[in-house]
UniProtKB/TrEMBL annotation:
<keyword id="KW-0479">Metal-binding</keyword>
<dbReference type="InterPro" id="IPR004452">
    <property type="entry name" value="LutB/LldF"/>
</dbReference>
<dbReference type="InterPro" id="IPR037171">
    <property type="entry name" value="NagB/RpiA_transferase-like"/>
</dbReference>
<dbReference type="InterPro" id="IPR024185">
    <property type="entry name" value="FTHF_cligase-like_sf"/>
</dbReference>
<keyword id="KW-0411">Iron-sulfur</keyword>
<dbReference type="InterPro" id="IPR017900">
    <property type="entry name" value="4Fe4S_Fe_S_CS"/>
</dbReference>
<dbReference type="InterPro" id="IPR017896">
    <property type="entry name" value="4Fe4S_Fe-S-bd"/>
</dbReference>
<keyword id="KW-0249">Electron transport</keyword>
<dbReference type="GO" id="GO:0046872">
    <property type="term" value="F:metal ion binding"/>
</dbReference>
<dbReference type="GO" id="GO:0051539">
    <property type="term" value="F:4 iron, 4 sulfur cluster binding"/>
</dbReference>
<keyword id="KW-0004">4Fe-4S</keyword>
<feature type="domain" description="4Fe-4S ferredoxin-type">
    <location>
        <begin position="299"/>
        <end position="329"/>
    </location>
</feature>
<dbReference type="GO" id="GO:0006089">
    <property type="term" value="P:lactate metabolic process"/>
</dbReference>
<keyword id="KW-0813">Transport</keyword>
<dbReference type="InterPro" id="IPR009051">
    <property type="entry name" value="Helical_ferredxn"/>
</dbReference>
<keyword id="KW-0677">Repeat</keyword>
<dbReference type="Pfam" id="PF13183">
    <property type="entry name" value="Fer4_8"/>
</dbReference>
């Protein structure tokens, strides 16, 4: 992503009043729900600390837990496939679909599958892929990507959904929620019955038992994993927990932080393919464990980022996300977690602008149920960007800035020069736009307070001398 791509997306989002209103309303609702639900936990900070300890321990011993999980899945009759890259993951899934001569696939929500551009790859080979989460179904019809981790169609209205659904229906549908959901239910039900393969994501994988745990609200996840004969689970390699004891903590924190619910409507635990005496479930189960850049983060100063449980809570409190929505971030994960994880997974050289999409207010850290200090990681990424970007002018400017601010004499000199240099741009005590490059960006979209005629220290000295 070039700088102008990012700036273009941000400007587009800032001019879209509907988008900003919709994002604000939805994030307000999610934030209020979260705050109300957290009151039901006796000591939320203790829960956070426990969750942080669980995730940090698990990621530290990830190799061990992944090995135990793999052995257990295989003992339970399932198959595990490792994918170092997105291409390898797609190849595994493609091969499984081909082996089953699948022509139709139903999918429930999976952010990792967005990383793989899975739908696009399967559709290229004439395999129909149908998203069955209502929000995902809407954005699939609109040919868009999710704009929120939890609420993918946050930017749509009833009217825009009615337009999309009417096209599929071949007749005008009213812009009313019951009519629209009834239509989606009718279409999707037949797709569930026709599909040869079901694909789900994975909220958590349990090492001790080889189980896959899914938190869903619409019931589509259960249809996806019980109706088609073959099921594929796509999991990011970090989505593991040692046992059900640790799941208990996550079960209390994830829905509360994500949607403000005590618990999601459905919590499904998959323990391998259908057994002989069982009435339903897939006959074949495949788990694709995706690395796609995660092992590069392991052991680095960014390791804590792998603790993320994808609750989306940091998005809802972020003053930047709340203004620009998700698409401006340009890749799969938006908001503060996206600004950190996108450059780590897909390259800082490509996504170097994202760590600057933050006010560093640390509201994300405060909201994070596993206490990831995202604001600190954003600063680290900014440092890395300057260090490795080879932008000599920027390095020189910040070098001078650092020197000036660490010496009292140089700081005083800089102030004197600055006061004179700013005169052509100052109006009513503010520097209002029009600064020359390379500092023009600073005042392009906001006013900058002009340097005061006298600094606090100068006034203080005068006061002490009794000059005023
Ligand atoms: S960083 Fe924290 S708040 Fe943000 S999605 Fe991940 S777990 Fe949730």
């Amino acid at each position: 992503m070039t700088k102008s791509d990012f700036h273009d997306r941000v400007s587009e989002a800032l001019q879209d009043d509907f988008l900003r209103g919709a994002v604000k309303r939805a994030t307000n609702r999610l934030r209020t729900g979260r705050v109300n639900q957290l009151k039901t936990l006796v000591d939320f900070q203790e829960w956070r600390e426990r969750a942080q300890a669980i995730r940090s321990h698990t990621i530290l011993h990830l190799d061990q837990y992944l090995e135990t999980f793999t052995n257990k899945v295989e003992e339970n009759g399932g198959n595990v496939h490792w994918a170092l890259t997105a291409e390898e993951a797609v190849a595994h899934i493609h091969r499984i679909c081909k082996d089953k001569s699948a022509k139709s696939v139903v999918k429930s929500k999976s952010m990792v599958s967005e990383e793989l551009h899975l739908n696009h790859h399967l559709e290229k080979d004439d395999i129909e892929v149908v998203e069955t989460d209502l929000g995902e179904y809407i954005i699939q019809l609109a040919n868009q990507t999710p704009s929120h981790i939890i609420v993918p169609a946050i930017h749509h209205t009833r009217e825009s959904v009615s337009d999309l659904f009417s096209e599929v229906a071949g007749e005008r549908l009213p812009a009313e929620t019951p009519a629209l959901t009834a239509f989606a239910r009718k279409v999707l039900r037949q797709k569930f019955l026709d599909a040869e393969v079901g694909i789900t994501g994975c909220n958590f994988a349990i090492a001790e038992t080889g189980s896959v745990v899914l938190f869903t609200n619409e019931g589509n996840g259960r249809m996806v994993n019980s109706l088609p004969d073959t099921q594929i689970v796509i999991m990011g390699m970090e989505r593991i927990l040692p046992s059900f004891i640790e799941l208990d903590t996550m079960l209390n924190l994830l829905p509360r932080s994500a949607t403000g619910q005590k618990i999601t409507t459905y919590v499904s635990v998959l323990n391998g393919p259908r057994k002989q005496n069982e009435a339903d479930g897939a006959k074949e189960l495949h788990v694709v464990i995706v690395d796609n850049g995660r092992s590069r983060i392991l052991g680095s100063k960014y390791q804590e980022v792998l603790n993320c449980i994808r609750c989306g809570s940091c998005l809802n409190v972020c003053p930047v996300y709340r203004q620009i929505g998700g698409h401006a971030y340009g890749w799969v994960y938006p908001g503060p977690i996206g600004a950190v994880i996108t450059p780590l997974l897909d390259g800082l050289e490509k996504w170097g602008e994202l760590p600057y999409a933050s006010s560093l207010c640390a509201a994300c850290w405060d909201a994070c149920p596993v206490k990831i200090p995202l604001h600190e990681k954003l600063l680290e990424l900014r440092k890395d960007k300057v260090k490795y970007s080879g932008n000599a002018a920027e390095k020189m400017a910040f070098g001078m800035y650092a020197r000036a601010f660490s010496s009292q004499t140089q700081y005083a000199l800089l102030k004197k020069v600055g006061r004179k240099a700013q005169i052509p741009w100052v109006r009513d005590g503010k520097i209002r736009g029009g600064l020359p490059a390379p500092i023009s960006e600073w005042t392009k979209t906001r006013d900058f307070p002009a340097l005061a005629k006298k600094s606090f220290h100068e006034r203080w000295r005068e006061l002490k001398r009794g000059d005023n």
